[in-house]
Design brief:
Order of helices and strands of chain A: EHEEHEEHEEEEHE
Distance between the termini of chain A: 34 Å
Structural class of chain A: alpha+beta
Number of domains of chain A: 2
Distance between the termini of chain B: 56 Å
CATH architecture of the largest domain in chain B: Alpha-Beta Barrel
Shape of chain B: globular
Number of helices of chain B: 21
Number of strands of chain B: 19
Bound molecules: iron/sulfur cluster
Radius of gyration of chain A: 19 Å
Largest sheet of chain B: 6 strands, mixed
CATH class of the largest domain in chain B: Alpha Beta
Strand content of chain B: 5-15%
Helix content of chain A: 10-25%
Oligomer: heterodimer
Largest sheet of chain A: 8 strands, mixed
Strand order of the largest sheet of chain B: 2-1-3-4-5-6
CATH class of the largest domain in chain A: Alpha Beta
Number of domains of chain B: 2
Helix content of chain B: 25-40%
CATH architecture of the largest domain in chain A: 2-Layer Sandwich
Strand content of chain A: 35-45%
Largest interface: A-B, 34 and 31 residues
CATH superfamily of the largest domain in chain A: Pseudouridine synthase I, catalytic domain, N-terminal subdomain
Structural class of chain B: alpha/beta
CATH topology of the largest domain in chain B: TIM Barrel
């Protein structure tokens, strides 16, 4: 295995990040993947230069505090690997709560995962006294607004931004564990990312929200 | 207990929630119901620092290897988490299976540092029991302590049923076995023998100190008169435990999710140190020196890298350059690590050209910085503290380092050491300027020397255990001298004054009565005393007043040769006469050679059972 060898194959893995990792951040996930690939002894390619980094890329950063059934990671390899074998080797060295369930080969020339705009869906269980129809009405009323201004801190500075255009849809999924499940479809990408906790906060549903989870990521 | 969903709400509002969720790769989760003996090991500091404590990792590994024992981890919750748990009425829980501390048979707390003593009390209280041993219920766990703080157990004696003095690899297992037997014999059922009975049996295990079986007596002027056993069959002095040969190191190290202080694989290549620096507690309490062989180290490194996937491996020891085979070790590891993209770190290098060569062997791509610790500026003071670095050594080291491509050297010094004068402190500036000049010659404007200065705190079981902490006025004057002397281009001077030096000095050499101060300060809100944003000086001031004691009495008072010391009944193998002789040699600025060159008679080889081991004593 040589650090300078060029990448000859790119594998895109679908994985789940479960309850035990709810509070593991995006950056921490990056480190987790690097270490898991080393434990699995995968021939990961490295960036060139003074400080070579493993070529591993994650899609749409998952906010800390959120689990996911729909994460993606790209691995660049210096030797061709059988995708199924890669999946098997990784699952053997991943901590409980991370599971790879899909793998596909992607052309080396395709754009980077991070650069792709995406549509992302989340779900959360919320408390709601009253019929589902009332909750649906609340969601519809939120969507009917022209703008929903929210505060955000960026590089230590407070600023305002409009959350409304980042949200495509809100709906009631059903009921679970005595709570209603609310679904959200938001944008993620260079033009702006809709944060699911912000959506729930502006709906007044955050305090009772539990089990916030990303359920789908649609690239492009 | 349905901690989980309540926890989610607490955790989403605390800083670094990943500290409290466990589930890391290589953490060991055993079946709670079917494992009879349950031990929690706690670290009284943050997760990020505690996860870097190799001692706890070793014990976690040993205990979890036993089929009938499970061992889980607990770290001190940061202020926000403590508040969140208290508000929700939730107990402090173990990371592996989220059980409250009171569900365990034994709770062991490591005491690595005086300034996190109060956190040990938080752990016990938030875990569901009284921090005071005398007030705990019979059904509460056995609460034990170990680590370097246990070498003067007296200030913390009120909070623990017993202390493990010395290395825990064998002693802890013997203790847990004895406890399991006692429990099987009905110890935990109703009508069992009282815990006192178990403690008396435990006191017969080598290295186990049961404070309730000893009494401290004082002179009218407040000085300690003696500490004596008050029960039959209890040793007058507790001799520290050592393992004659180091057992194989743990290799399935827990891999944290969040970034920790030493986020790398830690491989202990040697225990103990023969340099004999007189200020250093590690130098005496961890004697004798034992090395691991090259084969053992390489095998462990291979296993460790495969088991953890870490990108860096750190060779742990008090003085890496002293390992007799260090060159072979480094060469063999470098060969294996380079193709894997794994880097090697070699902390605690001696200041000599040999060490630069070692550093050269491991730093193939990046040359970030090299760290050395001359500790004093003048040759006289270095002789007095027995730090075996000459100016020539240091300049040659700088020559070698800057000459082979390093841009930065970091130097550690201490002020406030015994016999130190203003001239000694001025000499730090002179020395640093010479190092900078070497750097300039090789690296031009890129050369950087960072100088980090700490205040010397006298510690138990060292030749300086009788000395006073430097007074504030002298300290301030010497800092001014330093600041003036180090105002040079290319020098970064860092001086960390947390305002806790006197507290550290008092706790470190305190007696049993100091326990009341710690307890009171904790009640008044003292937590994480080493952290500037958490430290509550007013809580401590009031606690000292309430107890009718003063930190100056413990920290700033020089002791006579014949004064009874609170840790006299703790026997580290190194004789008190040897320590006094070293103190006298300090006064005369006479160095004592490294005992690898010949035994200097500290006494450890006669006091401890080393036969058949790998100890380097004759
Ligand atoms: S007994 Fe002698 S060789 Fe062993 S640690 Fe003490 S001084 Fe060194």
């Amino acid at each position: 295995m040589s650090l300078d060898a060029p990448a000859v194959q790119r594998l895109r893995l679908d994985y789940a990040k479960g309850e035990p990792l709810r509070f593991v951040s995006h950056l921490d996930m990056m480190r987790l993947w690097e270490r898991a690939c080393r434990r699995a002894r995968l021939p990961i390619a490295h960036t060139q230069g003074f400080n070579p980094r493993p070529r591993i890329a994650l899609a749409c950063p998952l906010p800390t505090g959120v689990t996911s059934r729909a994460e993606k990671v790209d691995l660049f390899l210096t030797t061709r690997m059988d995708p199924r074998e890669t999946l098997r080797r990784l699952n053997a060295v991943l901590p409980t709560g991370v599971e790879v369930f899909g793998v596909a080969e992607v052309a080396l020339t395709e754009p980077a995962l991070m650069s792709l705009p995406a549509t992302v869906e989340y779900q959360a269980r919320v408390e709601w006294d009253g019929p589902a129809a009332d909750l649906e009405a609340r969601l519809r009323a939120w969507l009917a607004q022209d703008s929903v201004m929210r505060q955000r801190e960026r590089k230590g500075r407070a600023g305002e931004y409009d959350l409304r255009p980042l949200v495509e849809h809100l709906w009631v999924v059903g009921q679970s564990e005595g709570r209603f499940v609310v679904g959200m479809r938001v944008k993620s990408g260079p033009q702006g990312t809709g944060r699911p906790d912000e959506v729930l906060k502006s709906l007044g549903l955050w305090d009772s929200a539990r089990g916030l989870e990303r359920t789908a990521v649609m690239l492009g | 207990m349905s901690i989980v969903s309540d926890l989610e709400v607490i955790l989403r509002d605390v800083e670094k929630p990943g500290r409290y969720t466990g589930g890391e790769w290589n953490s060991v989760v055993k079946d709670w119901e079917s494992t009879p003996v349950k031990v929690a090991l706690a670290y009284p500091g943050t997760y990020e620092i505690g996860m870097s404590n190799l001692g706890l990792m070793i014990l976690y590994d040993i205990l979890n290897r036993q089929p009938d024992i499970l061992c889980e981890r607990v770290y001190a919750p940061w202020l926000d988490m403590e508040e969140g748990l208290r508000r929700a009425g939730l107990p402090l829980y173990s990371l592996e299976t989220r059980h409250a501390l009171t569900d365990f048979d034994i709770v062991g707390i490591s005491l690595p540092y005086e300034l996190n003593y109060t956190n040990a009390l938080t752990i016990l209280s938030l875990g569901g029991m009284s921090p005071l041993a005398a007030e705990r219920r019979p059904e509460d766990p056995l609460v034990i302590a170990g680590g370097s703080g246990a070498y003067n157990p007296e200030p913390m004696a009120a909070f623990f049923d017993l202390f493990v003095i010395g290395e825990g690899e064998e002693a802890l297992l013997e203790l847990v076995r004895l406890y399991a037997e006692w429990k099987r014999g009905g110890g935990a059922a109703s009508g069992r023998p009282p815990k006192a009975d178990f403690l008396r049996q435990a006191a017969r295990i080598g290295g186990i100190y049961v404070p309730a079986l000893y009494a401290a007596e004082y002179h009218a002027d407040g000085r300690l008169a003696r500490t004596v056993p008050i029960a039959p069959d209890v040793p007058a002095r507790v001799v520290k435990r050592v393992v004659p040969a180091l057992p194989p190191p743990p290799t399935r190290l827990i891999v944290p999710y969040i970034e920790t202080v030493h986020d790398r694989a830690m491989l202990e290549i040697q225990r103990g140190c023969t340099q004999g620096c007189r200020f250093c507690q590690a130098s005496t309490i961890y004697r004798p020196v034992r090395e691991r062989t090259v084969d053992e180290i390489v095998r462990a490194a291979d296993e460790m890298l495969l088991a953890t996937g870490h990108e860096e491996i750190s060779l742990v020891s008090l003085s890496s350059s002293d390992h007799s085979q260090i060159e072979h070790v480094v060469r063999a590891l470098a060969e294996r690590c380079a193709p894997l993209g794994v880097s090697i770190s070699l902390p605690s290098l001696r200041a000599d050209a040999f060490s630069v060569r070692l550093a050269e062997m491991v730093q193939t791509t990046r040359k970030t910085g090299l760290t050395f610790a001359p500790e004093a500026g003048s040759q006289r003071l270095r002789d007095a503290i027995n730090k075996k670095v000459s100016e020539e050594d240091l300049l040659r080291t700088a020559e070698a380092a800057f000459g082979t491509g390093w841009n930065r050297i970091k130097l550690y010094f201490m002020v406030g050491q015994p016999t130190e004068t203003d001239e000694d402190v001025e000499a730090i500036g002179d020395l640093v300027r010479k190092v900078v000049a070497v750097g300039r010659r090789h690296r031009g404007g890129r050369a950087e020397v960072s100088v980090s200065v700490a205040t010397f705190v006298p510690k138990p079981h060292t030749p300086f255990q009788w000395e006073a902490l430097v007074d504030d006025e002298t300290l301030r004057r010497r800092l001014d001298i330093l600041r003036r002397g180090l105002r040079v281009k290319g020098v970064q001077f860092s001086w960390h004054d947390p305002g806790t030096t006197l507290l550290e000095a008092a706790l470190s050499r305190g007696d049993r009565r100091v326990g009341a101060v710690i307890y009171r300060a904790w009640q008044l809100g003292a937590r994480f005393d080493a952290w500037g944003d958490a430290y509550r000086p007013e809580a401590w001031e009031q606690a000292w007043r309430d107890a009718g004691l003063s930190p100056e009495f413990y920290g700033r008072r020089p002791r006579d040769r014949d004064e009874a010391l609170p840790w006299d009944h703790i026997d580290i193998g190194v004789r008190k006469e040897f320590l006094w002789r070293e103190r006298e040699r300090c006064r005369a600025a006479t160095p004592t050679p490294d005992c690898r060159e010949g035994c200097v008679g500290c006494g450890v080889n006669a006091a401890l059972p080393l036969a058949g081991g790998t100890a380097l004593c004759p």
